[in-house]
Design goal:
The complex is a heterodimer. Chain A is an all-alpha fold. Chain A has helices at 2-37, 44-58, 76-79, 83-91, 93-98, 102-110, 124-139, 142-199, 206-213, 218-223, 225-248, 266-272, 277-280, 295-302, 310-320, 341-347, 352-356, 373-382, 394-403, 418-421. Chain A is flat and about 120 Å long. By secondary structure, chain B is mainly α. Chain B has 2 domains: 32-85, no CATH class; 106-206, Cytochrome Bc1 Complex, Chain D, domain 2 (Orthogonal Bundle). Chain B has 9 helices and no strands. Chain B has helices at 2-20, 35-38, 106-112, 121-134, 136-139, 148-153, 162-165, 169-178, 192-206. The chains are: A mainly alpha, B mainly alpha.
């Protein structure tokens, strides 16, 4: 029994010793880990992880090489007191500021007391991987390089365009020169041949003499009756055509592309930047008019983008002086006709481009459609009413189907009634 | 010769007609049939012609101004539209009244503002339509990767980021209405109801 007791004590002591050993070694390992944890990792995995964390959480307010809401993060690990300081600040910046930390307070004051969101859920490893990404971007700025090559590419492309247009005009000029030379050569040949024949006058018959002695004076040609007739005919025909087409174009503003007070490009905004028409033309779902946007809508982006551009400064000028920008209206439907954007957009589901053309391709907007009554009516005759998912039309569709006249067109529901548009 | 000479005269006239033209191009809006019927005598909201002489030749008005003149000299900048009286409150057909929470009080907005819209799939669907018109060029179709404008604009957050993921509907509504950080206020473009619809769809994107 006693032996057993002794044995048990011995075993307990061994276990205790072993435990102490394990714990102390673990403690040492933990210490090692924490000291390794405050250096910025350089492995690919951390950088990749940091990149996705950065774009998901930090990009709102920070860029690597540019001051946004918060400071540019380039080399942030070198200028701040320590990497531990960054860890603390990211997790709870207010705590660091309130602790009286001088660097943090200076930063807070510099950025107009903008509070940085507290990322308390981030682990040290996550913040360090973000720093790893920042370090990698600081050392090899990939995005900047890509942007630079992109603009270079754009420049050469633009250059290519102007080269090709000057090339075309060079070809045309060369052709004209060649034609003129041919004319000169022909005249020379004629004069040489006539001279040659005149020298051998005695060998020629009477008829041949008549040909060689013919004088080609300009006046003779102009006085010739066939010539006058031909000219008169061509002229009358052209004048007639011009008059007819001009008369037909009265009251039609197709092709009207006025210069605007600010050189706004729909091609850039609606095309390349893919901004929806409705973002600026706010009335299209609600009103008769699609609306010409007010300057505050421009500033939603241009408070930050291209703030140095002379054209953008015109917007600032308008806003600062509370002065409207006097855009020139392109589509002027006559006052005698009524048209409603919201009806055509919401109910019929017609795309803007159906009537306005490919505005997203236009540098300067021009009127694309005729906007005449015939043009309206043609569409109302051939377009099926968009009844899908619209209970309002259920009874009408039923009645129309009973009458058995095929698909219900806009004209069938009064789309050609005079008083629909003229009242 | 006589015919030719007189033809020359006509030729010049015809060329003049072709060049001056009745058809529109560039800055020239072209000629109109019955100008008196084309130009509104009443004030038109999106049109303004300040020149009093404009359309004098067809004028049937007895107030001494041209037929096309369309400006209201009583308004600032002679505008045809007039700004509402200061502090006017617009009421929509649903009776939504704008809140008076200060634009920087996001925490208060999050606590106080509640969506008046029912929790139906239809609201979310309409929110999606509006989101695609008003938000996705910056925030991207899914609210994670920035859209085309977001790429140049910089600083567009992902809805799933730690800072935004758990923000409530009141916060989202307040941000759309007044803007936050680099984002601008969108209250002038979107009615209260439309903003709440977008909030509903953004909430879906937060939890994707």
């Amino acid at each position: 029994m006693t032996i057993g007791f002794h044995k048990a004590r011995k075993i307990k002591a061994i276990i205790a010793f072993a435990l102490v050993c394990i714990m102390s070694s673990q403690f040492a390992m933990a210490q090692e880990a924490s000291s390794a944890g405050t250096t910025i990792p350089t492995d690919e995995a951390s950088i990749g992880n940091g990149k996705s964390l950065f774009s998901a959480n930090c990009k709102t307010c920070h860029a690597i090489d540019k001051k946004l809401v918060g400071p540019a993060l380039q080399g942030v690990y070198d200028r701040t007191p320590s990497v531990e300081w960054i860890l603390g600040f990211v997790k709870n910046s207010q705590k660091v500021i309130q602790s009286g930390d001088a660097y943090a307070n200076d930063l807070y004051a510099e950025y107009n007391q903008t509070q940085m969101t507290a990322f308390a859920d981030f682990s040290d490893e996550e913040v360090l991987s973000i720093l790893a990404y920042i370090k990698q971007e600081t050392d090899n700025p990939t995005t900047a390089a890509v942007a630079a090559t992109a603009t270079e590419g754009g420049a050469t492309e633009a250059g290519g365009d102007s080269v090709s247009s000057s090339y075309v005009s060079a070809i045309l000029i060369a052709l004209l020169v060649v034609l003129a030379l041919i004319l000169v050569v022909l005249v020379m040949i004629i004069s040489v041949l006539t001279k040659h024949l005149n020298n051998k006058e005695e060998d020629l018959s009477e008829a041949e003499k008549e040909v060689t002695k013919q004088s080609f004076t300009m006046e003779g040609v102009l006085r010739a009756k066939p010539f006058i007739f031909a000219v008169a005919f061509v002229f009358t025909a052209l004048a007639f055509k011009a008059v007819i087409s001009q008369v037909y174009s009265v009251g039609i503003q197709i092709g009207y592309a006025p210069e605007q007070p600010i050189k706004f490009s729909h091609k850039l905004h609606a095309g390349e930047m893919e901004i929806d028409c409705n973002y600026c033309h706010t009335g299209v779902m609600k009103s008769k008019n699609a609306n010409i946007p007010s300057a505050n809508i421009c500033l939603n982006c241009h408070s930050q983008i291209k703030t140095e551009s002379a054209q953008i400064k015109l917007i600032y000028d308008a806003v600062d002086n509370n002065k409207p920008i006097e855009w020139v209206r392109v589509h002027n439907l006559p006052d005698l006709a009524y048209f409603n954007h919201s009806q055509h957009h919401n109910v019929a589901g017609i795309e803007c481009q159906t009537c306005h053309g490919e505005v997203q391709e236009m540098e300067v907007v021009e009127q694309h459609s005729l906007l005449t009554m015939g043009w309206c009516i043609e569409c109302h005759r051939k377009t099926d009413v968009n009844v899908k998912g619209n209970a309002y039309y259920d009874d009408l569709v039923k009645m129309h189907d009973e009458a058995g006249k095929g698909k219900m067109k806009v004209e069938d529901i009064g789309g050609l009634e005079c008083s629909k548009c003229h009242y | 010769m006589y015919i030719y000479k007189s033809m020359k005269k006509y030729l010049v006239v015809a060329l003049g007609v072709v060049i001056a033209g009745c058809s529109a191009s560039g800055d020239n809006p072209g000629k109109e049939y019955a100008p008196n019927m084309y130009h509104s005598v009443a004030y038109e909201p999106l049109k303004q012609i300040k020149n009093k002489e404009s359309g004098m030749w067809v004028s049937s008005l007895d107030n001494g101004v041209g037929e096309y003149y369309s400006s209201n000299p009583n308004n600032p900048h002679e505008m045809n539209m007039r700004e509402p009286v200061a502090n006017t409150v617009r009421r929509s057909k649903f009776g939504f009244i704008p809140n008076r929470i200060h634009k920087d009080s996001f925490a208060l907005a999050e606590r106080v503002l509640k969506s008046p819209l029912p929790n139906t799939p239809n609201v979310e669907k309409e929110g999606k339509v509006l989101y695609e018109k008003f938000c996705d060029h910056c925030h991207g179709a899914k609210g994670i990767e920035p859209g085309k404008v977001g790429e140049v604009f910089l600083g567009v957050p992902a809805y799933t980021s730690a800072a935004i993921k758990n923000k409530g509907e009141g916060h989202l509504f307040h941000v759309i209405s007044h803007g936050k950080g680099r984002m601008g206020a969108h209250a002038s473009q979107l009615s209260i109801e439309e903003r709440w619809k977008i909030v509903r769809y953004v909430q879906k994107l937060q939890n994707q």
